[in-house]
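INFO  loader      accepted 1 record
INFO  loader      residues=427
INFO  predictor   begin
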Amino acid sequence: MSGSNPSLHNITRAIDAIEEASIGTAIYNAETQSYVISEARKRRRQIEDEEEQNEQLVNSNNNRLVDGSDEISVVGHELSLMQITRTFGLSVYNKGFKAATPFQRNLMELCLNSIVDIDSNQLFKILDIGPEAHKALKIVYKNESLVMPALSDYLVGLFRQSEKLDGTKKRQHFVCASFDSYHDDKKRLEIIGSIYKNLTTRKKILESWRTLSEWSSIVKIWSDLFEVAFEETNVELIWGDTLNDKLKVDLRLCLRYENKDYDIANIEFKKNSKNRNLVVEDEVKVLIEGKSIANKLVNIYNMDFEESKKIKVLTGQIVGLRGMLKELTIVAPGAYVAQSFGKTIKYPISDDKLKLFVEQGLQLIFVFKDHVVREAERLKSRLTEEDNGFGSQSTDEDQGFLKNVWRVKKDAKKFPPVHEDIFQKLI
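INFO  predictor   done
INFO  writer      dumping tokens
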């Protein structure tokens, strides 16, 4: 027989290669499958461990009494207001992250921070506090309605003079008047001119406000109002998701002292949103930011409980073309009450609504500005030790009436442990 057939030899080599590849693939697949199964088992054990830990934590929470040192009586209930509030928060917490709806998680976060919005009928209904009991609490803790200061005769006269002018000439009218004005009236006139610019040469912005992104709305509509109002004050406006006590904030109003920013007030912005949960999420977030500011001010001023009740932190939430300011105060040990500060601010979308905005919404922004500036001045005095008599010589124990800030991260998959200070202290 002559030499071997080259074709047959090549075929044999190809078959051997295929068999080797098949064996290699089989080994690889087996190893991969084994790794996947091993990782799945690890993950299952991890989940089981987490569930066991959560169950132990829930059982531990269920066996403990929540703190009731606020002693705020609620008609028809044996528990105090903060006990009712914290108990509801724990009931959602104990369900677990996945079982709770976004709305429940938001309310839980508010309640486990010992914050009650006295104006929220919905919250009191969820807490099973009836209308009469709610009304009784409002009588005690609801402040009198805020009265807006009247416009100066000078501004009233300028509006009267502008009645027959068109939009562009009105803008020129108010901007020119600003050059001959001083202090807050000068700022008001600059803001009015800025609004008329949006109503005339930039009217497409207001016509399409529903589709604007959050930051387009801030930059093109709202930023001028706050920047101009706070010009030539000791308050620094810090824009753009910067941190206040690990909380990201859209607009922080701060005193800058020795290269450090001290928060006085915070404002959150949201574009026009049909998702109510996102609006509630921001509402809760800004109130928690307010609590954080209140705690820090009490600590810096070295206040005891009675003095801490004088602290009033203002916060803001702006959604689309509407804004709402709220004030937060400490009304009892471990009890933070929020309520509306003035009426809803409505950015004007037409000439005929601008004067009403100036009389109400813009005046409210200036009342807000005055409060923040006064607090910044007082804080600066404290920090520079110019006012050594402010605040008592309290100790850490004296400030046990404060409750720690508790926050669920935006990308969280489970709840963090609750703070010990929401429970009664073990003797």
